[in-house]
Design brief:
Layout (H helix, E strand, L loop, with lengths): L13 E5 L3 H12 L3 E6 L23 H6 L4 E4 L7 H9 L4 E5 L10 H7 L4 E6 L14 H8 L21 H21 L6 E6 H9 L3 H8 L13 E5 L2 E5 L4 H10 L14 H7 L1 H9 L3 H10 L4 E3 L10 H5 L3 E3 L6 E3 L4 E3 L48 E5 L4 H11 L3 E6 L25 H6 L4 E4 L5 H11 L4 E4 L3 H5 L5 H7 L4 E4 L16 H8 L19 H23 L3 E4 L2 H8 L2 H9 L16 E5 L12 E5 L3 H10 L14 H6 L1 H12 L4 H10 L4 E3 L10 H5 L3 E4 L7 E4 L3 E3 L18 H7 L4 H9 L11
Helix pairs in contact: 1-6, 5-7, 6-7, 6-20, 14-20, 19-21, 20-21
Length: 809
């Protein structure tokens, strides 16, 4: 067994891993990196992931698949199986000496235990259950795969992903599994924090469907209800997007009007700017797409990127498993390191801590390498002296008493701080009246509307329970106020480009001089060092550089940017780094710097590509809506018209087991083509997917989506309708679990807002307690708490350092 690092935040915390699949394995990998003693319980044949590769490669006897070798690094392995005289007793003996259990549905290693029975038998445990739909609700027992969950979530349609003349495409790379693992780790650390004072356990019930809603769509229900229209009613490719240069693929993105104007200047076509017409970026780019692609195709990737960077236009190479490890920025930052046993490249942890207390990389265990007996745990049950600058209060809110300064904007940063605000932290969101949070400005609300900046659904969805203040810290007086505020906070989170705070002396040494035990989370797009340090970091650029884009799209065309994943994934991993830092401070009283580069969080969940390439020399390929875990897997057009009157209503079908195929063939009436014995195996079905798709397309084309779903689900086959994202709140499963809550707003319309993708048995009963703040709403309250009197506040307002109305310079 690898020895726990004495100073690691989770040293002394034992985790029993009763999960199977990527989600549980990634959750426990993050916990192991934090120093936890993770014990993976396996059946005698071992975890199936020991033998699975997305390439289809045979794994030699005595070796492990490379993805397993990465995800199981730093863990122990114990075998508990039917041949044990008392398998339940052996498991109970281990559970008595643990604090945390990670469980997924029907794991062979769980000896038939459910999350509820685990908690009943061992009430001190925190039990994290990872299931497709959650442990309750009308769909809780329904079959599902990553692919069908993406369809139900609205994530396949997403922000209009894909060309309108083809079926929409799912996001490749099993990203929902990775996101679920990261959310499960955050839920586990939260529940441990809440359980610690009284030694009582808790159930964390995580729904992978709800994870996909948060990770693959952009608050579409809130957008639709506040503005009366969907974000986008039809699919279109984002342009310029991914294009073929002379020597490879390059991505250029225009997320703002200024970036579009700069692009027109860069390519020598200022006439593309039409000042007398309202700018619609997608339409403008589509009109000139042939000329743009011709311009790109005549130049190399490096030439294009150098020009685009000079014009401050977001850009990136489009990486894959063979190229991502060679990117100069990643080499300089040592993002990839050799696997301790098999030497293929694997990403380092997705965040960096200073002091560096993460566990060094260790090899994965061999099957059954660590049998009992199990040593006892430290007296406090978590390996630390129990210091806490912000003790948990008995409120059902695990982060009550924690004060967080939120210097973030748009999606990535606010999503990290929002998790804390939803669970009780006092989060103070800082803007200025001339530089508001960009999320206020992206909904296309006419500036002629009164208080138009208060009506953006994205800002409303991301900032409930927060306080809002405005400080112009470009001025010295504003910086003075900000410094006084920093000194009162436990945590500061920021996602500016690195130079912004560095230039005003508020890097980590600067804020530590104001409060020695402060935790500072910095979320630059590409990190605090390296040649891409100052590059603009929109989500799609992050996806391109990390390899997430590469696996999304059709094999006969350029890949398609997910365009919705880079931001929430970055916020989620920054949150995990922050929670480890909080545990470090609880134990030591020390502050910490958390560097959570967006691109390294994306590299972490795209890890399988460089791992498989390094192990087998195989570049994983995008394959439309097919995938490595199910055959057949695809989208099929139903007989319905969609809500916009188009014959564009799809269903997702994914056959993950031979038993599911037999059930599907029986439902079809066992036609001659389906009775072919070769189709009884996954390999045979994969070889005949074209034939199967043709037959299933014909069968689905004469039936409604509801008819297809009802018949296949009743037969035990994973299936879903491809949902328009703004219809998420109509799903009975999400309704039953209370995933959306109605929230009033003093200026904008009342709307339903998404909550968390997990239910904590310790509460709270309601997530959204206050709407998102108005611009500068809490200026007086927060500044009075700092000791400023009314006259000083009035003077700051008169000088424009504070304010409550948006101003243009």
């Amino acid at each position: 067994m690898p020895e726990s690092t004495a100073t690691a935040p989770l040293s002394g915390c034992r985790v029993v891993d009763l999960s199977s699949g990527i989600a549980g394995a990634y959750c426990t990998r993050l916990l192991a990196d934090g120093g936890a003693d993770v014990v993976k319980v396996e059946p005698p044949a071992g975890d199936p992931m020991r033998r699975w590769s997305a390439t289809g490669a045979d794994i030699p006897a005595g070796r492990d698949a490379p993805l397993f070798s990465f995800l199981a690094g730093g863990k122990r392995s114990v075998v508990i199986g039917p041949e044990d005289e008392q398998p339940g007793a052996a498991l109970d003996d281990l559970l008595r000496r643990a604090q945390l259990v990670i469980w997924s549905r029907d794991p062979a290693a769980a000896a038939g235990r459910t999350p509820q029975s685990l908690l009943a038998a061992h009430p001190h445990l925190v039990v994290v259950a990872i299931t497709p739909f959650g442990l309750d609700g009308p769909w809780c027992g329904r079959p599902a795969t990553e692919f069908t969950l993406q369809a139900w979530s609205g994530g396949i349609v997403g922000l209009g992903r894909g060309a309108p003349d083809r079926a929409p495409v799912h996001v490749g790379g099993q990203v929902g599994e990775w996101l679920a693992g990261a959310y499960a780790a955050a839920g586990a650390l939260t529940a441990l924090r809440q359980a610690r004072p009284g030694g009582r356990g808790q159930l964390v019930d995580l729904s992978m469907l709800e994870v996909d809603v948060l990770g693959l769509t952009y608050y579409p229900v809130t957008f639709f209800e506040m503005l009366g229209r969907p974000w986008r009613s039809e699919r279109s490719l984002f342009l310029p997007g991914v294009s073929a240069a002379k020597d490879g693929l390059v991505a250029i993105g225009c997320g703002t009007a200024q970036q579009w104007f700069d692009l027109c200047a860069m390519v020598g076509h200022p006439e593309w700017i039409e000042p007398d017409k309202p700018l619609r970026l997608g339409e403008a780019a589509l009109r000139v797409a042939p000329q743009l692609r011709e311009w790109i195709g005549a130049r190399t990737v490096d030439e294009i990127r150098e020009l685009a960077s000079a014009f401050r236009i977001p850009n990136a190479p489009v990486s894959n498993g063979a190229t991502v490890t060679e990117l100069a920025h990643f080499r300089e930052r040592e993002v990839f390191r050799p696997n301790p046993r098999d030497q293929f490249p694997q990403p380092r942890p997705p965040f960096r801590l200073l002091p560096d207390v993460l566990r060094p990389a260790e090899p994965a265990p061999r099957l059954g390498e660590h049998p009992a007996p199990w040593p006892a745990l430290p007296a406090d049950g978590n390996g630390g002296p129990g210091q806490s600058a912000a003790p948990v209060r008995e409120t059902g809110l695990p982060y009550a008493g924690l004060r967080v300064l939120d210097l973030t904007a748009f999606w990535a940063g606010p999503s990290a701080t929002h998790f804390l605000a939803m669970l009780g932290a006092e989060v103070i969101h800082v803007e200025s009246v001339t530089r508001p949070d960009g999320a206020r400005l992206i909904a296309g609300i006419p500036v002629t509307e009164d208080q138009w900046w208060e009506k953006c659904p994205i800002f409303a969805a991301l900032n409930t329970n927060k306080k809002g203040i405005t400080i112009d810290f470009q001025s010295e007086r504003g910086r003075g106020v900000l410094r006084r505020l920093i000194a009162t906070c436990d945590v500061i989170v920021e996602n500016y480009t690195p130079r912004v705070l560095d230039q005003i002396g508020l890097d980590y040494p600067g804020v530590r001089a104001l409060r020695d035990d402060i935790i500072m989370v910095r979320m630059p797009g590409f990190g605090l060092t390296g040649p891409m340090r100052d590059n603009p970091a929109f989500a799609y650029v992050i996806e391109d550089a990390a390899g997430l884009t590469w696996l999304t799209g059709y094999p006969d065309d350029n890949p398609v940017e997910p365009y919705s994943l880079g931001d929430p994934n970055a916020g989620l991993h920054a949150l995990n780094g922050l929670l480890l830092a909080l545990e470090h401070r609880r134990r030591t009283g020390e502050g910490m710097l958390v560097e959570a580069a967006m691109v390294e969080a994306a590299v972490s969940i795209a890890a399988q590509q460089p791992i498989e390439y390094g192990a087998f020399g195989a570049v994983l390929r995008r394959d439309g809506n097919r995938g490595p875990l199910a055959a057949p897997q695809n989208l099929y057009l139903s007989a319905d018209t969609d809500e916009f009157g188009r014959l564009d209503a799809w269903v997702a079908i994914a056959v993950a087991t031979d038993q599911q195929w037999a059930a599907l063939a029986g439902l079809l009436g066992r036609p001659d083509w389906a009775a072919d014995p070769a189709l009884s195996t996954a390999a045979g079905r994969r070889a005949s997917q074209d034939l199967i798709d043709e037959q299933l397309s014909a069968w689905c084309a004469t039936r409604t989506g509801d008819e297809i779903v009802d018949s296949l689900w009743d037969a035990g086959v994973p299936v879903a309708k491809v949902l328009q994202p703004h219809r998420q709140a109509e799903l009975p499963q999400l309704q039953a679990r209370g995933f959306f809550e109605d929230v009033d707003h003093p200026v904008a319309a009342r709307a339903r807002l998404s909550t968390l993708p997990m239910r904590l048995s310790g509460g709270p009963a309601r997530i959204h307690r206050q709407p998102a703040p108005l611009l500068g709403q809490h200026n007086h309250e927060v500044l009075r708490d700092l000791g400023l009197d009314q006259a000083e506040i009035a003077e700051l307002e008169a000088d424009g350092i504070l304010g409550r109305a948006l101003r243009t310079r």
